[in-house]
Amino acid sequence: MPTSFIQRCREFFARPFFSDRRTVFCLWMLLAIAAAVAKYSRCNNFLIFRGVFWHTIHQTSLYALYPEEYFDLNFYGPLFSLIIAPFAMAPLFIGLLTWLLALTGILYVAVRWSQFTWRQQLFIFWFCAHELLTALFMQQFNIAIAAIILLTYYCIEREKDFWAAFLIVLGTFVKLYGIVGLAFFFFSRHKGRLILSLLFWGAVLFVAPMLISTPKYIISQYQEWYVSLTDKNADNMFGSGTNISLLGFVRKVTHCATYSDAWLILGGLVLFCIPYLRFSQYKYKAFRQTLLASVLMFVVLFSTGSESSGYITPFIGVVIWYTASPWKRSRWDVTLLVFVFILSSMSPSDLFPAYVRKQWVQPYALKALPIIIVWLQLCYEMTFKAYGTLQSAETEIGNG
Known about the structure:
Elements: H1 3-13, H2 16-19, H3 21-39, H4 44-58, H5 80-83, H6 85-89, H7 92-113, H8 118-127, H9 129-137, H10 142-157, H11 161-175, H12 191-207, H13 215-235, H14 246-254, H15 261-273, H16 285-301, H17 312-324, H18 331-345, H19 354-361, H20 369-384
Helix pairs in contact: 3-7, 3-9, 7-10, 8-17, 10-11, 10-17, 11-12, 16-17, 16-20, 17-18, 17-20, 18-20
């Protein structure tokens, strides 16, 4: 990519308008409002979410089909009934609008509260704006999952282990993905407190939905939830709108259904865990942030339930990967970043050639390919590179 073009882009986005906090906040809120207006007549996912609350109130199955209310099924845990309650009780459009504003707001706050520099935050706000809009169009809780992971990392860094445990359990009891917050366990200075807090919040949030139902009903719904997730995992194998992951990419390219995903997951876990052996790097903030980036990508790349709307999570991870390193990024890295934006973000939209999208991107889960390449490079960097190569690198956990 020509250096002059890159320089012109940098100069353009260096203008004060693009770096003003009011600009990025208003942009993200406008995306939520636009999505609510555009999807008001076709907000099936939000109808499913509303149903979780009302079916809990009426103590009917959370995982059965209700064709008279919406199509498709609910796959969120019983705890979600409390989260969606205020939005479910409001009139439909008000509920949808405030739901999307809340999702956007919590992710905005998570980025602002993070220990990223303002430059990193700006990069996230602009680079991930289109991916945020994709998730908003689907009204998905994936936006909150990204925020939960970021806030968990923030709490561990700030030694707020009690609240880190709350976020981990909350995310796990709603959509399982929150459990990846345990990846930051080794960065905690209060591991015993964190474990006790996990047990405390596990008990509290397990019984919390019983406040609007009964213990017997909630226990039965946790059992149904397990069955529904097991069935969904099998259905996702070759689904065109799901399994947009490393697992799905390999399976759809090979057209093979006879092997177990466990082998790929095991290999991914090995690559993910090797950097944990580099204890000397823990003291560097750049290393810890890069592990956060790895978590944000891993959770989608190794899930058969990954959908296009869930890519707001790994997209934030890509930005962190690019900006957190203490060394200067190469032209290859810049090219890879552009590749991520073009293929992973733009391919589901009407701005991408329809033929390529329908004949290649969707059937072979190519949206995942650039993220796979970034994650593999990230694993290499975390395994072999030094994150304290600059004098400005931090040397105390929790500083900054």
